[in-house]
Amino acid sequence: MDEPAAPAHTVADLVSRAAERAGGHPALLAGPVTLTWTDLDELVDRAASGLRGLGLAPGDRVVLQLGNSVDFPALYFGALRAGLVAVPANTGYTGPELTHLLQDSGARALVTSSVHVIAEAAALRTGELRHVLVAAPSGPDGTLPLPGLLADAPELAYRHVPRSPEDLAVLGYTSGTSGKPRGAMLSHRALLANLEQCAKLWPSPVLPNDVVLLAVPLFHAYGLNPGLGLLARAGATGVLVDHFDPAGTLELISRHAITAVPAVPAMYVRWLEEPHLREAFGGVRLATSGAAPLPPATLLTLQAAGIAVYEGYGLTEAAPVLTSALVGGIPKPGSVGRAIPGVELRLAEASGSEAEPEPDGEEGPGELDLVGPGGGPGEIVVRGPNLFSGYWPDGADGPDAEGWWATGDVAYADDDGDLHLVDRRTDLILVSGFNVYPAEVEAVLAAHPGVAEAAVVGRPEPERGDETVLAYVVPAPGAAPSQQELLDWAARSLARFKLPASIEFVPELPHTATGKVIKSQLR
Q1: Residues with Cβ within 8 Å of residue 5, at least 6 apart in sequence
Q2: 374 falls in which pLDDT band (50, 70, 90)?
């Protein structure tokens, strides 16, 4: 397995190392544009100089609301090279959502390609925000065109800014599926550690001669570090996809002979509808899935088409990868695999006490203490150099004094030691004192042929001091199941207390950019 020529002390060093090793090798393909690693390294220099030329100082936050274009890696690595802190922002954020992020982070600059945000740029001038750069040749009064900034800035001015591995690199705002997003403080140390941990997997997610599909949004932790970060670490070639189209991306996979495909479950679901899926994936060396649970039926259908997809699990706070099916080597429906090298993982009892490890449990490359198959689900607690430094701005709720951090996710381990996610601890529904995990109810409802998608939340019953189960169901095309039909179906597989008290039929469910249902909106 190829290693970088010299160790990287900051994330931005990855680009200069790639340029030193393979400067003429293509780094990014974006439509008709091709950048070599030397080209990208020079562009990163100009971005660093341009941002510092605005009067920004080391440690200042820069919000990057950009799609999967060349601008994102240029500004991301450029901000880090200049000693600034990158704050990736969802391109779909509304004005209030973006305002919260800007105000909470105390950002001094915003770089955006969002048309509606550009139109409302003046209204965003709150708090510490001083500069709005638009990814267009021109913008409204008071904004700066990004192309001009990159073209006019000198090179090499900030290549050797001294930085510590513990310096803050990224403020990664969580998806906010259950409340206001919080900024996870990710140091250079944490991001680089997760890249090294992932690189020790075999087969390696990204090798130097790979061509990688970069269709997962780069503003998401999955696209940012396992996507863009591993690409730079290996000095491989990335094909940028700004708007996912199932047929179009399959054509890109074939045309560019793409060999590594990191994707989210929603992409695989859409690809299964395409007739040329098997042909397009014929040359793919490794396909992975993350950011949301991969439906077991989807994995089985892909396997039947000769496509192996290795699922993993992680969180923004872990930079982000914690487990992978690559550790066990066999994709398993419903499983997210085992702890990756360098990550310690244990399951804690609901009371918060540490679970006893299985006496015959085997430890893989990552360390895993198990609540046995008969012991029921437990909360995932992790430790490793890839963990964040707490939440912005004061490091609250980070790892404890011994380095352990409770994820809030509930899982159980099967006989092989592979993890199966059950649900978020915060999504747990208490019905008459019994635990109801929404994911279990959702899986049963989604198995009905008349259901396209289902989401379950708890509905408070203040008079009873209790909750009831509320289900939202999107009917399958051409289907119109009744509430009673679905309740009868669910009753075959679920105890009575787990059954929905009511089912609401909706045309669609709200999702994050990577396919997670936004349950806070449903509540």
Answers
A1: 17, 20, 21
A2: very low
